[in-house]
Amino acid sequence: xxxxxxxxxxxxxxxxxxxxxxxxxxxxxxxxxxxxxxxxxxxxxxxxxxxxxx
Length: 54
Ligand SMILES: [Zn+2]
Prior knowledge:
The chain is of the alpha+beta class. It is built from two helices and two strands.
């Protein structure tokens, strides 16, 4: 079962609240979590690329 990356809740894959980002599909418990993810995507995806600098 996928996990909402914003609040950490487990969500059903059938949820209408899902977004594709960087070739991954993310699922959300609510429209507000999906919106939060859209606005701050970098905070919620893997931090691996964060230290590459600018
Ligand atoms: Zn949520």
